[in-house]
Amino acid sequence: MGKRTVTMSQDYRRRQFVKMVGVAGAGSALVGTAGAATGISTRTLDEQFDLDGGVQEALVVFDDSENARRLETLDLPETYHVFEHLDVAWTNLTADQLETVAGWDSVRRVKAAEELEWHNDDISRESMAVDTVHEAGYKGEDAHVVIIDSGLNASHPGIGADRVEANYRYVDEPTGPRDPFWVDTNPGDTDTIGHGQHCAGIAAGDGEGGTQGSYEGVAPEATITSYAVVQYIYLPYVVAAWNHLLGRIRTEPEFDPDVVTNSYGVARGARYNPNDPVNVATWKVFQEGALPVFSYGNDGDIGEGGGNRFAKAPHVLGVGAAEKTIDEKNNNNNRSIVGFSSRGRSDVDDVFYDRDALLENLREFFAIQEGTTQTIRTDTFTGSVGPGANTDPVLAAPAFETDTGSSYENFTAAGNADLVDLTLSLDPEGQWVRMRVYEDRNGEWVEVAQMREEVLKQHGTLTVDVEASTDYVVELEPEDTVTADYTIEYTSYAKPDGDLNDARPVTMYRPGVSAHGNAVLSTQDKADVLGPLGEAGDAEPFYGRLSGTSMSCPAAAGVAMLVQQAYRAESGGEELSTADVMRVIEHAAADHNPNYTTINTGAGFVDAEVAVDTAEALAAGDTTIDELETGLDALVEPPAEVTPAEEIDLNASGSRDDDASVFTAGQTNRVEVTLDGFNGNLADAVRVTDQVPDGWTVDENFGDVESFDEDSGVVTFEGTAPASGETFAYFAEAPDEGAGDTGTYTFGPATAVAVDPETFEDDPDRKQGSTEENFGGTDTNTVAGADTEA
Question: Alpha-carbon distance 201 to 125, whole Å?
Answer without folding.
Answer: 13
